[in-house]
Amino acid sequence: MRFLSILCVCAALLPGVLPGALSAAEITHVMGTTEVPDNPQRIVVLTNEGTEALLLLGKTPVGAASSWYGDPWYQHLGDRMAGVEVVGTELAVNLERVAMLEPDLILGSKKRQEEIYPQLSAIAPTVFVVNATDFKENMKLYARSVGMEAEGEALVSAYDADVARLHSALGENADDTVSVVRFVPGQLYVYRHDSFSGVVLDDIGFKRPEVQAQDGLSLAVGKESIPNMEADRMFYLTYDTGNGEGTALESETLKDPLWANLNVVRSGKAHKVDDGVWATSQGILAARAMLQDIARIYGVDADFSSE
User: Fold this and answer.
1) Exposed, middle or buried by CB within 10 Å (0-12, 13-18, 19+), for 227?
2) d(CA 178, CA 171)
3) How buried is 229 (Cβ within 10 angstroms: 0-12 exposed, 13-18 middle, 19+ buried)?
4) CA 232 to each of CA 17, 213, 225, 295: distance values in angstroms, whole numbers, following the listed order
5) 95-135 pLDDT, tens per residue?
6) CA–CA distance, 204 with 198 (Å, rounded to integer)
7) List of domains in the chain
8) How is the beta sheet containing 187-191 ordered, strand by strand?
9) What are the CA-CA distances from residue 140 to residues 50, 120, 296 (Å)?
10) What is the pTM of this model?
11) What is the mean pLDDT of the chain?
12) What is the pLDDT of residue 131?
């Protein structure tokens, strides 16, 4: 009953405006235009990618959708999320928990939460990105939403500068063809240009194997397609829901003669990387962690910028 009362009171307000909030800006986003309060302090974020953007801006949300891995946050976030309330997952937001946190701003994604946008907007001003693919443009929108547009632009520029430094440090290896393979329970995937890892690898300037050098996120393949994964370098990752099926598929595939006979495997240039960083998080902190992984694997010092 308490939750229903909160929603009823909020629904009676002007869309996206809280009582007493000072409107600093009108933010245009995929769902329309939303008036956001000046310097929001109680932010709820409903995507892992959005959480990383906030953290890099120096703002810790009061509530967030849990990470796909971790208990409840990704390992690469360290202790940044200490004390943050879990408000469900990206695909199952707990509206009552969101309302009880009394946020003054909610950040989410049309792809994940379009159906509950009206309820969220009744609780607090709500800004949505389209999806998590374009983490750089999303960062700029999140930054505008919290009154930190200049800081957001600077952070994206710092990422671009880190990419340029890595490209330079890689030397002739910057022209390598790199393959990205992912083990998911019951299915083997290769990842393409429009995937999160694909965007970062494209930024660096790497080439991709023919089947991966295509538009789109990913392609489900069978083990007979393993020879098409050949490359100068390979990065492979495993998504496991906790029942061990993803890990079992990884183990089974790595023992397959087709895999063992790949030149990239025989030369020791196939590297296991973290799935949270390379696939599921999709945020700017994960992108920076990807750059660091690549520098470490290639043994180069890119002199990355500090956060």
Assistant:
1) exposed
2) 15
3) buried
4) 53, 14, 17, 15
5) 999 999 999 999 999 999 999 999 999 999 999 999 877 89
6) 10
7) 2-147 (3.40.50.1980), 160-298 (3.40.50.1980)
8) 218-221, 187-191, 178-184, 233-238, 270-272
9) 11, 22, 28
10) 0.88
11) 91
12) 84
By C-alpha distance, which of 307, 142, 290 is closest to 203?
Answer: 290
Strands (E), the chain: 23-29, 32-37, 43-45, 63-64, 85-86, 88-89, 92-93, 105-109, 126-129, 178-184, 187-191, 218-221, 233-238, 270-272
CA distance 10 to 3: 11
What amino acid is encoded at 220 in this protein?
A
Strands (E), 38-134: 43-45, 63-64, 85-86, 88-89, 92-93, 105-109, 126-129
CA atoms within 13 A of residue 274's CA, in its CB half-sphere: 19
- Structure tokens that stand for 124 in this block: 């607090």
What single-letter DSSP state applies at residue 184?
A: E
DSSP for 226-292 reads GGGG--SEEEEEE---SSSHHHHHHHHHHTSHHHHT-HHHHTT-EEE--HIIIII--SHHHHHHHHH
The partner residues of 221 in beta bridges, in order of sequence, read 188
Q: From CA 104, how far away is CA 49, in angstroms rounded?
A: 20
Q: Which residue has the tokens 């083997």?
A: 188
Q: Tokens representing 50?
A: 């959005």
Position 215, amino acid? D
